[in-house]
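TASK: fixed-backbone design
INPUT:
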């Protein structure tokens, strides 16, 4: 049982893995501690170099590349570099996201809509294509985990429109790929986080329009009564790529402190609280 989560001998590719304290960074270090060699990428060159150094300090081999996953040429170059260093891909974790300026849907520009989908959806597709092409040549197949969101399961409001639409599509992308490649020993799953204290959320919490109310309102919707941490996403991702989940594919795993379990009219507090 202790070996179910062992990634020794595995090669993982993680996009959006800058050392700014996000989900990709936490996952990269988690995988390295589990024995994997890790190739990390991001548009933040200095940050992703730091992540690679941290992986090497844990005794694992690390590769690093600049990659804007919405750019097909960047994605192709990323996987060429993975080929040169590791000659295989066992695991892919798609992490990056982008928010346009928060506006009402009728005020949203086509440019902002397209940019959001290009990173939050098309980029996941491009990276998955490249990983699957390599996994198909391996008898062992592989595993892909996409970072979805509770925003893709129910309406969030507050300018989430393009992000939520993209994440809902990521959920369907996950299920379609899982069905297509299950017989090739390629498993595809997703996590659905609630609000995680990433740099992006911390920036939102400082937005004068939301600062006074957003945290309290958000915590009201999470039965655990708090926002989540990036490290709390890494463990579920490790489970999904490990042998412990060998029969798990096409799953959208909420990692949300109970958010999706809470009825919209419900509460995790009593009136006396």
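OUTPUT:
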């Amino acid at each position: 049982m202790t070996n179910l989560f062992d990634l020794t001998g595995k090669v993982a590719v993680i996009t959006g893995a800058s050392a700014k304290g996000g989900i990709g960074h936490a996952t990269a270090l988690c995988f390295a501690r589990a024995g994997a060699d890790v190739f990390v990428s991001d548009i933040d060159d200095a940050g992703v170099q730091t992540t690679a150094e941290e992986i090497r300090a844990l005794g694992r081999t690390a590769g690093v590349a600049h990659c804007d996953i919405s750019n097909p040429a960047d994605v192709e170059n990323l996987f060429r570099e993975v080929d040169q260093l590791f000659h295989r891909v066992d695991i892919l974790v798609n992490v990056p996201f982008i928010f346009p300026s928060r506006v009402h849907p009728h005020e949203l520009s086509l440019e902002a809509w397209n940019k959001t989908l290009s990173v939050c959806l098309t980029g996941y597709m491009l990276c998955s294509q490249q990983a699957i092409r390599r996994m198909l040549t391996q008898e062992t197949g592989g595993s892909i985990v996409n970072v979805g969101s509770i925003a893709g399961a129910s309406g969030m409001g507050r300018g989430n429109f393009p992000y939520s639409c993209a994440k809902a599509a990521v959920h369907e992308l996950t299920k379609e790929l899982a069905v297509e490649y299950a017989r090739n020993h390629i498993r595809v799953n997703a996590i659905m986080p609630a609000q995680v204290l990433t740099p992006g959320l911390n920036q939102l919490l400082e937005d004068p329009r939301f600062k006074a109310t957003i945290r309290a309102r958000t915590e009201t919707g999470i039965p655990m009564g708090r926002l989540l941490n990036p490290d709390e996403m890494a463990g579920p991702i490790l489970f999904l790529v490990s042998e412990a989940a060998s029969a798990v594919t096409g799953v959208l795993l909420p990692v949300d402190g109970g958010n999706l379990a809470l009825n919209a009219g419900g509460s995790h507090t009593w009136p006396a609280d």
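COMMENT: Strands lie at 11-15, 37-42, 62-66, 91-94, 142-147, 186-193, 252-255.
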